[in-house]
Structure to design on (211 residues):
């Protein structure tokens, strides 16, 4: 669920950084995501971004809301260098093969494009997902991959159903792909500080709407 308004503002700043207007923007979104932002009528992120004139593609194993039913944890050879912006509003943390997931994002993004993550921090969203991230992870990933870090911030997810338990802080990272290069090796990726936590496979902390 894409909820905080700050995330949309961060997206807009990223597009401004690369000089791309909404109507000219090609966007790849990881996941089939709902949206609940004050002032936004749409409840499905794809519909909202398309209403802005963006060329929008999304990928999710469930194929929901017009997303392509593909596994982000496996190599996806299409879409190489095709998108101005690639977003992860809470999907990568559910992908078993972290290396292939982040490699796909790197490959989908045009050189000069922007990648944005909004993902759980350690000891937050307990029982929701296996993988959690810190600012250090994105700093190190950017150093290895030659990304330019545009923004790093922490937000707290507001609202949600009563079943949502525990702290709900998210790390937000906006990074610019500065050059046309290959993604790092699996060995280098393993050195990055991804935090693995136990989680509930029933996903009791899911915020996605049922519609």
């Amino acid at each position: 669920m894409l909820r905080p308004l700050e995330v949309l503002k961060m997206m807009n700043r990223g597009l401004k950084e690369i000089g791309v207007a909404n109507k000219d923007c090609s966007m790849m979104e990881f996941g089939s995501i709902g949206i609940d932002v004050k002032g936004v009528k749409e409840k499905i992120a794809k519909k909202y971004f398309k209403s802005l004139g963006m060329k929008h593609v999304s990928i999710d194993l469930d194929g929901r809301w017009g997303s392509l039913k593909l596994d982000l944890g496996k190599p996806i050879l299409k879409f190489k260098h095709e998108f101005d912006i690639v977003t992860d509003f809470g999907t990568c943390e559910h992908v078993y093969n972290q290396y292939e997931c982040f490699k796909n994002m790197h490959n989908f993004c045009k050189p000069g494009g922007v990648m944005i993550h909004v993902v759980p921090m350690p000891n937050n969203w307990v029982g929701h997902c296996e993988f959690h991230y810190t600012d250090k992870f994105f700093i190190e990933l950017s150093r290895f991959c030659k990304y330019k870090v545009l923004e790093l911030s922490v937000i707290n997810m507001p609202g949600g159903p009563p079943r949502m338990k525990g702290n709900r802080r998210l790390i937000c990272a906006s990074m610019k792909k500065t050059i046309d290069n290959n993604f790092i090796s699996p060995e280098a990726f393993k050195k990055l500080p991804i935090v693995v936590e136990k989680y509930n496979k029933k996903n009791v902390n899911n915020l996605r709407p049922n519609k």
